[in-house]
Each structure stands twice: as C-alpha cells, then as structure tokens.
C-alpha cells in the first residue's frame, strides 16, 4: 500500500509539472482570473480527490491592477444577490519563473498560491501544500 501511495504522489507531481510546463504565458491568465468561481474538485497532495457537486459559498476573485488583488467568500441567494461577511483577503500578484503567483498576508497568516491555468470558464490553483483546486466559472441560479 505504501508503494502505491508513493507512486500516486510521483504521478500527481509529474502531472502538475506537465500542466505548468504546457501552460500558456502566465501574463495571459490575469485577464481571466477576475470573477465568481465555484470549486468543482480538490486534489490533495496524496492524490485523494474530493468532488463538489453543490457549494454553499463561492469565491469572488479580482485582480484590481497589475499587482494587487482581492478574494472574498460569497453566499449566493436565489434572487441573484450575494451575502458576504465583508472579510476580504488581499493579495499581491507576481510573475516568477513563468508562474502567476498570488501572495496573501493577513494578521493571522501568510501564504502563496500559484495559478496553473486560467481561462474563460476554468481556473486551477495549487497552494504551497501542493493541494490543487479546480474551479469552474459560477453561473447564478435565479428563481422568479
């Protein structure tokens, strides 16, 4: 069993490297990051996958200029509005080693995330713990 987990980890890291190396220019990612995003899947560093079919909250991410951005959690309502706790995480955007990195700093912690892919409808982010987050563009549900 340990042999299988070790090989799964190697495969996971190899896939991440391939994703990064086959990606487009990280500068091009910036134009797609701003918006409402819903987590569809999380892949832990041991290869374990968790699917998200329904989310109570979504992420709003915005790059406000070339080097600054914000992220906040929102709870969508059925009438097309959102509830928020008004907590905002600010980040600094840096392109380093052909990667688009987001550096967060709060009074409680600091961390880095790397955007592996950003397109009109998909976003892939890996954090410093090698946890991969797969997002899809959020589409509001409205009930009249």
UniProtKB/TrEMBL annotation:
PROSITE patterns per record: PROKAR_LIPOPROTEIN
Residue ranges occupied by any Lipocalin-like domain in the UniProt entry: 34-125
Protein name: Lipocalin-like domain-containing protein
Protein species of origin: Olleya namhaensis
């Amino acid at each position: 069993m340990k042999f299988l987990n070790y090989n799964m980890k190697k495969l996971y890291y190899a896939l991440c490297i391939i994703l990064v190396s086959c990606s487009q220019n990280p500068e091009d990612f910036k134009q797609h990051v701003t918006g409402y995003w819903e987590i569809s899947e999380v892949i832990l560093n041991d290869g374990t996958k968790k699917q998200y079919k329904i989310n109570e909250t979504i992420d709003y991410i915005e790059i406000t200029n070339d080097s600054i951005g914000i992220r906040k959690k929102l709870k969508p309502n059925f009438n097309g509005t959102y509830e928020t706790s008004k907590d905002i995480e600010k980040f600094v955007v840096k392109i380093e080693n052909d990667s688009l990195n987001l550096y967060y700093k709060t009074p409680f912690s600091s961390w880095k995330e790397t955007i592996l892919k950003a397109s009109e409808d998909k976003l892939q982010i890996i954090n410093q713990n090698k946890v991969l987050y797969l997002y899809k563009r959020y589409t509001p549900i409205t009930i009249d």
